[in-house]
Amino acid sequence: MIILHDAKERDGRGWVATVGFFDGVHCGHRFLIREMRRLADERGLPVAVFTFPAHPRVVLQAGYQPKLLNSFDEKLAHLATAGVDYCVVLDFTPTVAARTAQDFITETLSGQWHVQTLLIGYDHRFGHQRSDGFEQYVTYGAACGMEILRAPVYDTETGAVSSSKIRRLLSDCHVEEVSHMLTYAYRLKGHIVSGYQIGRKLGFPTANIEVDEPYKVWPGMGVYAVWVHLDGARYKGMLSIGNRPTLNGKQIAIEVHLLHFSGLIYRQCIEVEFIRYLRANRKFEHLDALKAQLQDDFRQVEELLT
Fold this sequence. Notes:
The chain is of the alpha/beta class.
């Protein structure tokens, strides 16, 4: 996939394209891209996606803090696996936000980027205040020689797929269902920071993770079976998101124990894949009871990830 930031960087060929933020690059997004690929193959054209490095609402609403499924780099990596030939990165500025759909179609997509066919997501709207709909888009496209089509509805057996639905499922700890909707296991990437060393005293030393992307969604509090990627290797892991209730902790933290691993890993980069939710956090009467539960968690993870 070729990433472009300026129309001067592209060649003169037309494109089959779509526009969106594509947070998560989930199965609904991939369905849209497959439809673009089908249209592109029929027309002998490449496939292009127009997207933004920052969430548009950050520009439109002061103080808005998005909840993201992907960092920008992760989004680009997933788009590359979905069959996209070109990804155009547009900075979403107040000037861009003020542009009408007509201006965006005729001047930006057609005039600057030579989009030949634009595929619109079934319920997607763009342009200033999203005031126009698909019928208006078709009219604007006809005026500049652009074919504008609407993608069919994409529904699964459990209903429509959306980034907001995936965020709710993550909050409720349903990481397996999230994996099906994303078509990949949900991941958090960060660096290992110092902790309280309580796990070491219990025989289960943990790595405390500081997530790199500040707006990335964390799964709900609880204990999970995860795959841990560290220094080019993969390890089984038991991960906790919570405030250490047995120790009367206050701050919510992410800590992971790597099975069958020993070594100094402070400040290293680490990435975890969420595979299965195991249990809720709870307060134990004493540390021996907590240790017994951790031993049971260890056995479950060992079996699940074998």
